[in-house]
Write a structure and sequence with these properties.
single chain; mainly alpha; 0% strand; 9 helices
């Protein structure tokens, strides 16, 4: 099955987001499993079991959310539903791209899992908890590490599913999953230390472009759903080619351009604030 050029762009967008979320999951899991092999116990297997359960839970969540939106689609106009799910996707992407919140949302998340792992192992050595409870705790750590990222991806992809169908979304998920699987194999099987920071920065820049495209598209959908007014800027008609609309979601209206400018300011502002906090 071949993809049209516009579908290929969407597949790339989805693939980048899935890879970014997968990369963060790999880093959290790498932090959790560090040192467990030396203990000579099945803790790594417990973490892997938690990941497997989380994967199944993510699939169930996808089916449940998709069913819910399909039921809503029978009662809510299609444009309104697409606008609502698109807004949800943008919120998810803004959270992922928010550098200031990143310290609590991601760095703090890793710290929490490391602290919880240390506490479990400490209590296990002291005999204050049973070995089965320690293993169960490791399963929970593996579960939460994966499911949070999976839940975000499920929410993000609903907008694309409503617009383009499940097949196009599946292509993007497969592309992102293959890239994530390669990183996971190099990390856990080959024990390679990859340039994770550079990979996060690179995917962050790509997601920034995806964000601007999605914001422009969402603003136009909100205009079509009459959630936003439409104020044309005739002076920009000759500066913005008509082809930019379908490809880059750049439209000569005050509302769409203002929304994209605001999204850009939010991301850059959060980066500058986070950087000033470190100085």
């Amino acid at each position: 099955m071949s993809l049209r050029s516009d579908q290929a762009l969407v597949v790339a967008d989805i693939g980048v987001l899935v890879f970014r979320e997968g990369l963060e999951c790999v880093l959290v899991l790498a932090s959790i499993t560090a040192g467990l092999r030396r203990l000579g116990k099945n803790y790594n297997r417990a973490v892997a079991a938690g990941v497997a359960v989380a994967f199944a839970a993510t699939l169930v969540t996808w089916c449940a959310v998709s069913r819910l939106l399909s039921d809503l689609g029978r009662q809510v106009p299609a444009l309104a539903l697409q606008a609502a799910t698109g807004l949800l996707a943008i919120i998810v992407l803004l959270v992922v791209m928010n550098w200031f919140f990143h310290k609590l949302y991601w760095t703090g998340w890793i710290s929490y899992h490391n602290t919880r792992k240390s506490e479990l192992l400490k209590h296990g050595r002291a005999g204050s908890v049973t070995a089965h409870r320690v293993v169960f705790g490791m399963i929970l750590l593996g579960f939460t590490s994966f499911y949070r990222e999976g839940f975000e991806v499920v929410l993000f992809l609903q907008s694309y599913r409503l617009k383009l169908g499940s097949v196009t979304v599946a292509w993007g998920v497969v592309a992102g999953s293959l890239a994530t699987g390669a990183v996971a194999a190099l990390t856990f099987l080959a024990h390679r230390h990859l340039p994770y920071r550079k990979m996060l920065v690179a995917t962050g820049l790509m997601l920034g472009i995806v964000l601007l495209v999605m914001v422009g598209e969402e603003a136009q959908e909100m205009q079509l759903a009459r959630w936003l007014p439409t104020t044309d800027i005739p002076q920009l008609n000759h500066l913005i080619p008509a082809s930019w609309g379908p490809w880059f979601s750049v439209f000569p209206t005050v509302e769409t351009l203002a929304a994209q400018g605001l999204a850009c300011l939010l991301v850059l502002g959060s980066y500058l604030v986070a950087r000033s906090e470190r100085l």
